[in-house]
Design a protein that fits this description.
The protein has nine helices and ten strands. By secondary structure, it is of the alpha+beta class. The chain folds into two domains: about 140 residues, Jelly Rolls (Sandwich); about 100 residues, Arc Repressor Mutant, subunit A.
Length: about 250
């Protein structure tokens, strides 16, 4: 990331972005909660990317260089918190589950960002309580550092439906499947199938936000059938891709 903008205070506000819209790389001295009330949001850092639909928010710790991208018409809600106020005790970006109450708290808190009243103070306290109770979601797609792993991951990012085995991809990038399997575990902290599934789920969220039909999304993301895709999607996000697309 180049031309990194430094904004000491993380803003609290609601912002609308058209599909494909971006907020360039920047950092804050404060923590920030980033939530897509409508559409799907991607947050990218030097260590990977996080994608969140409407029932997920992304915790961005103070000092983290990050960029945003919108998929679908994005209603972006940003909540800034002082660096001394870390209700989650997290120092890395993390995806959090957002239930109905937390959703309404975030929307209400960002609707009047300049208000200064006892009511707003109480609202913020309840919001922080709900954050503490929010389950963390393993929706991070780590970025590889090893050149050979970067080349392989680049192939799959260009075409998530590529169903070649690790051995077949290894022949293309000049490395054995044993070496690549070890690199996935040591560099990315997950197996090759886990990483590819995360990639496909992220790509699926983007396509659904762009109103692609569920069957087409399943095909474009490499699942053998729509039912197989729906099963993985439901187990990961807690709802079907059809209901997600209808939001």
């Amino acid at each position: 990331m180049t031309n990194i903008r430094h904004t000491p205070v993380a803003p609290t506000r609601t912002q609308l972005l058209a599909t494909g819209g971006e907020i360039d790389a920047h950092r804050h001295d404060d923590h920030q909660i980033v939530y897509a009330g409508r559409g799907v949001l991607t947050v990218t850092t030097g260590s990977g990317s996080w994608v969140a639909p409407g029932n997920r928010a992304i915790w961005v710790p103070a000092g983290t260089v990050h960029a945003h991208q919108a998929h679908g018409e994005l209603e972006l809600h940003l909540v800034g918190l002082p660096a001394t106020d870390n209700p989650l005790g997290l120092d890395v970006p993390t995806v959090l589950a957002v239930g109905p109450l937390l959703r309404e708290l975030i929307i209400a808190y960002t609707r009047t960002p300049d208000a200064d009243s006892p009511e707003r103070t109480r609202l913020r306290a309840v919001l922080l309580d709900q954050l503490r109770a929010s389950p963390q979601q393993p929706l991070h797609l780590p970025a590889p550092a090893a050149p050979v792993l970067s080349a392989l991951c680049g192939i799959l990012q260009a075409d998530p439906a590529d169903n070649r085995t690790l051995a077949e991809l290894g022949r293309h990038v000049g490395a054995s499947d044993r070496t690549l399997s070890r690199l996935f575990r040591s560099d990315l902290g997950m197996t090759f199938p886990q990483w590819r599934t995360q990639l496909r789920l992220q790509h699926a969220l983007v396509l659904l936000a762009e109103k692609e039909p569920v069957t087409a999304v399943a095909h474009r993301c490499g699942w053998s059938s729509a039912s197989a895709f729906i099963d993985v999607f439901r187990r990961t996000f807690g709802h079907t891709p059809g209901s997600h697309a209808a939001d």
